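task queued by scheduler; priority normal; single chain, no ligands, no partner chains; default sampling; output format set to structure tokens
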Amino acid sequence: YLYYNYEMILLNFLECLLYFEETVLAFEDSVLELLDYAWRQVNIHLSFGNAKISAVPPVIDQKSTQSPSQLFAAQEWELQCSRSLTCVTLLWFIIDRLESLPMAVMNAVLQKNDMLVGFSDVLLAAPWQRRGREGVQKFIDGRFTPVQDSLRICVPEAHSWFVMHKLLCDRECRKKYAYTTYKKEAIIRVKRFLNETLVDQIPALVDVQRALEELSFLEPPSGTEEKFKSTLIIEPVAQLLESIEGGKNFKQLSETMGRMLQDPQIGRAS
């Protein structure tokens, strides 16, 4: 539980730092590892399925008859939700500065991770919104809060639309993104959400509407043509991840940590 809390503290700290463009640029090539980490967290959350993501979990009550493992599972799920939605914001702060970052970052966004299709899935899953017997909850100020107006957008929802706007409407992104029939159909699915209420809150989404209309008339190249298309992608080695994982026996470390939790004297002796 402490690990998840520490991770959230670091993510909130990064969220504050990356709001400023100079901080994002200062990461240089290391921003690729942050991008991959944030996108991995979002995908892990989506992998639980819409049924779990959109459901309001039971209220965590320390005085209830729930076992410690059940309480921990409930707290872990809340932190998992917060972690993934904070990562959506981190991704927007990075993607917003694509033109100023190394070319490998754009390749990672558009080709390696295909975030245009990915964020279409995010918008369809709407992990920032839950529905239960007591009404609708939305992710506001770091926690899920009951809301009266479910059509009013929250921060991670807005940032997801900003990402779609950037990747669909930016000239450089349009040049470098290779559409296929599958990608076209996956992206067009978000068109159903572009109603008048949403566009009134984010007027820039008019451009997204126009881009989706253009996309609906686009005839993507066939799979055969894409197969013979030459592409070269150069990506730096993940130095931070290698320095953390390289040469370490994580099974042995986990066993040592387990013994330390049972007997604090082990940690003091070492």
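post-processing summary
- Strands lie at 129-132, 135-140, 143-147.
- The longest helix spans residues 68-95.
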